[in-house]
Amino acid sequence: MEIMETPFRLGIVFTHPTQHHGPLWRKLSEQSGLEVKVLYLCDENQGSGDQYLGKTSQPWDVDLLGGYQYEYLPDLSGKVPAQQKKSSLAPSLLQHISRKELDAVFMQSFVNYSYRLTALLCKLRGIPLIMQNDATIISDGRYSRLRQMILPIMYPWMLSQADYWLSCGDHNEIHLRHYGVSDNKIIRGCHPVDGDRFKQAIASNPDEIQNIRRDLAHRADAIVYGFVAKYTDRKKPFEFIDAIAKARQQDPRVRGIMLGGGVLETEINQRLATLDGAVINVGFVNQSKLPLYYAAMDAFVLTSRLDPHPLVTSEAMVSGCPVILSDGCGNWGYSDTVIHYYNGLVYPRGSVDALANAMLALTDAETRHRYSENARKTFEQQSLYTAVDSFLEVVRRLTASQTALPVAKAPGEYTSAGSSLSEV
């Protein structure tokens, strides 16, 4: 491939380093003809753990910053915040978001003041703006009645500020179209999960997985259902606990494990103490070990009341877990992450009986095996490489006549971790 003398310069304004996006920035930086720089608004996950995972949370123990250019931006206090804030405003964006430095800018949503300043600067200075969010009509239900009345006025104007949207699933695309984003501005992408890291960790640690499985199962024929989330009311952890208890009445092999932490942990432990070991609270598990716990599960369950696009489902699926998902989550659909009766089951949120029945349906080993294989297949169409493709497609469109830039491959064309993303 011919290399451009002047690469396409993509600026990324992002809240903080994450285990999901760090690998994406690294892969994008590997592309010939593409220069990437990430501007972080805080250093959460580096100096401290996730603020919503409770006191036992720790900084992530995987590399979030290697392999790409980045810079932390101080806020108005002159310091880099340690945690995300909606009031975050980084004045140095005035210098960074300029035509002299960037050919396009990517950011997610308008959730903080720095994002809003970025959008304004892009508009004033003629810099193409690329955006992505995980919003759905379902997740809009979390807003007050007054805000829901304002959305039809506010959202069309806000969403029109972006030149391109990278959608992350069926429900997200419905949301974008509902608020007036035209099809020619929507490029199907995904929210990234570093599947290569998960697969490598699982393949390299079979003995440790067996040890984890033995410690959690307590009996050789146990069927282990896992819950991985913050222990908050929105995630509905007690729905998981109650369904395990109900399903266990019909099949004593059923067992639950919970990974996470948060404000409900004390109440959860009190409830579990009454269940004679039916559910174990494992607590906080850091990123390097998390794939091993997924691999030790037979199925993964997420009970959220409202959850736009929970990436724990993708983490579970690349690890081979079939998924039971509340319909309050925004990542199920005909071509989304969880496909009912194909790689998992979707149940009506709030129904403990329906969830218990779904758990009992997955006590069948043949069904679990079929869903597990399909979960892995589905993930490969929504992997880190799919996310890379979507960015490269935007770059291709923004430089329509310049054939020297990277050309996106069709989804699924990447077949192994060793594939070169810069090949043409």
Walk me through the topology:
Elements (H helix, E strand, L loop, with lengths): L7 E7 L7 H8 L4 E7 L28 E4 L20 H4 L7 E5 L4 H13 L3 E4 L12 H15 L4 E4 L2 H9 L7 E3 L6 H10 L1 H12 L5 E8 L6 H14 L3 E8 L3 H8 L6 E5 L6 H7 L2 E4 L9 H7 L4 E4 L17 E4 L4 H10 L3 H16 L3 H15 L26
Parallel strand pairs: 1-2, 1-4, 2-3, 4-5, 5-6, 6-7, 8-9, 8-11, 9-10, 11-12, 12-13
Give a quick summary of the entry.
The protein is an alpha/beta fold and 424 residues long. It is built from 14 helices and 13 strands. The model is unreliable at 401-405 and 407-424 (pLDDT under 50).
Question: Your description of this structure?
Answer:
This protein is of the alpha/beta class and 424 residues long. The chain folds into two domains: 8-192 and 383-398, Rossmann fold, CATH 3.40.50.2000; 195-380, Rossmann fold (3-Layer(aba) Sandwich), CATH 3.40.50.2000. It is 35% helix and 16% strand. The chain is built from 14 helices and 13 strands. It has helices at residues 22-29, 93-96, 113-125, 145-159, 170-178, 195-204, 206-217, 237-250, 265-272, 290-296, 312-318, 352-361, 365-380, 384-398; strands at 8-14, 34-40, 69-72, 104-108, 129-132, 164-167, 186-188, 223-230, 254-261, 279-283, 299-302, 323-326, 344-347. The strands form two sheets. The chain has a seven-stranded parallel β-sheet with strand order 3-2-1-4-5-6-7, sandwiched between helices. The protein has a six-stranded parallel β-sheet with strand order 10-9-8-11-12-13, with helices on both faces. Helix 4 links the parallel strand 5 (129-132) and strand 6 (164-167). Helix 6 (195-204) crosses helix 10 and helix 8 (237-250) crosses helix 12. The longest helix has 16 residues, at 365-380. The protein is globular and about 65 Å long. It starts with 7 loop residues before the first strand and ends in a 26-residue tail after the last helix. The model is unreliable at 401-405 and 407-424 (pLDDT under 50).
